[in-house]
Amino acid sequence: MLIRLNELHRQPTTSARKLLREAREVRINLSATLEEALEAAVRQRRRDLWLAENREAIQANNRLIEQEGVFSDELRTF
Predict the structure, then answer these.
(1) Is residue 48 included in any domain, yes or no?
(2) In the chain, how many domains are there?
(3) How many degrees, rounded to 5, is the angle at CA 22 between CA 18 and CA 28?
(4) How far apart are alpha carbons 59 and 42 in whole angstroms?
(5) 17 located within any domain
(6) What H or E segment, with its residue span, contains residue 45?
(7) How high is the pLDDT of residue 47?
(8) Alpha carbon of 7 to those of 1, 4, 10, 44, 51: distances in Å?
(9) Do 20 and 12 contact (CB within 8 A), yes or no?
(10) In this structure, is residue 2 part of a structural domain?
């Protein structure tokens, strides 16, 4: 497998360099910001994967509730 050096060490685009410069100017902690963004991205991706893996079971449960209702239906006052 051939890997080109520029694929391993990509340079930021002009807009990315400008954004990095602006972030530094306003004293944004880049490593903390990246960590927070990655945590959020991983959390969202795990959620999406879980929903995809469980979609059929969720749909089956929703159909059952539509057909049978829930145990508290008779107790509701609204």
Answers:
(1) yes
(2) 1
(3) 130
(4) 25
(5) no
(6) helix 30-68
(7) 98
(8) 13, 5, 6, 27, 33
(9) yes
(10) no
